[in-house]
Amino acid sequence: MTSEFLVKMLGEISAIMQENKEKLIALDSVVGDGDLGLTMTKGFAVAYETAAKGEADAGRMLYNAGKAMSGAAPSTMGTLMALGLMGAGKVLKGKTELVDTDLVEFAAAYLDAVMTRGKAKLGEKTFLDGFHPGVEALKAALAAGESLAEATAKAAVAAEEGFKAAKGMLAVHGKPAVKGEASREMDDPGACVAMLIWQAIAKAAA
After folding, report:
1. Is residue 153 over pLDDT 90?
2. Does 191 have pLDDT greater than 90?
3. pLDDT at position 56, please?
4. Exposed, middle or buried: residue 22 (CB in 10 Å: 0-12, 13-18, 19+)?
5. How many C-beta atoms surround the C-beta of residue 206 within 10 A?
6. What is the DSSP string of 158-203?
7. Could you tell me if 131 and 153 are in contact, meaning their C-beta atoms sit under 8 angstroms apart?
8. What gap in Å lies between CA 47 and CA 52, rounded to an integer?
9. Is the pLDDT of residue 80 over 70?
10. Which residues contact 170 (CB under 8 A, 6 or more apart)?
């Protein structure tokens, strides 16, 4: 596996955001300002275009993709997703050949960057609640000797379960928090983005 897999992965993420643009807009319109579908579509499209330029160093390629995304989608969520790519880029810096566990490193670094910048914790109804279950499922499946395709498929299922579980949580951050107890009955747009990312990663690995 080379950095080409990561390029393919970003292409799948870009495509799934485009396919779900209206869904993300609808979810975000309930709890935010409704621009999430637009920023995720534009941001990940630019990230993919940048990654596809042929940089062999996986870390440098991800960092450049994140930096480009940050400029193209300067919203709160756009910035967090861009920082996730940049954080993952730092961890994979210097690598041109990748092994399956490097995807765990990618995902863990992505999660850490978003958690650090966003100052959120698990259980606070955010992107983390959809993304973290995917990281853990991927790690466990690969440790058990499963193939990358099998492991990412399980990660996608876990992320979907995380997205669904976030619906009962109390929002602590941003505009959803203003809804108070009413936020428990709402789907979290960020956790939905996390679920879509894992679905795209699974498709790239299939």
Report:
1. yes
2. yes
3. 93
4. exposed
5. 11
6. HHHHHHHHHTTSPP-SHHHHHTGGGGGGS--HHHHHHHHHHHHHHH
7. no
8. 9
9. yes
10. 124, 125, 180, 181, 183, 184
The chain-wide mean pLDDT, for the chain, equals 92
User: Mind listing the domains of the chain with CATH numbers?
Assistant: 3-205 (1.25.40.340)
Please spell the DSSP secondary structure of 107-148, one letter per residue.
Answer: HHHHHHHHHHHHT--TTSSSHHHHHHHHHHHHHHHHHTT--H
Give the pLDDT confidence score for residue 17 in this predicted structure.
97
Residue 181 has pLDDT above 80, yes or no: no
- Give CA 201 to chain center in angstroms: 9
- What's this model's pTM, rounded to 2 decimal places? 0.94
pLDDT at residue number 178: 63
Are the beta carbons of 116 and 147 closer than 8 angstroms? no
Could you tell me which residues are beta bridge partners of residue 97? Answer: 2
SS3 44: helix
Q: How far apart are CA 100 and CA 107, in angstroms?
A: 12
pLDDT at 180: 58
| Beta bridge partner(s), residue 2 | 97
Helix (H, G, I), strand (E, B) or coil at 92: coil
Q: Which amino acid is at 58?
A: A
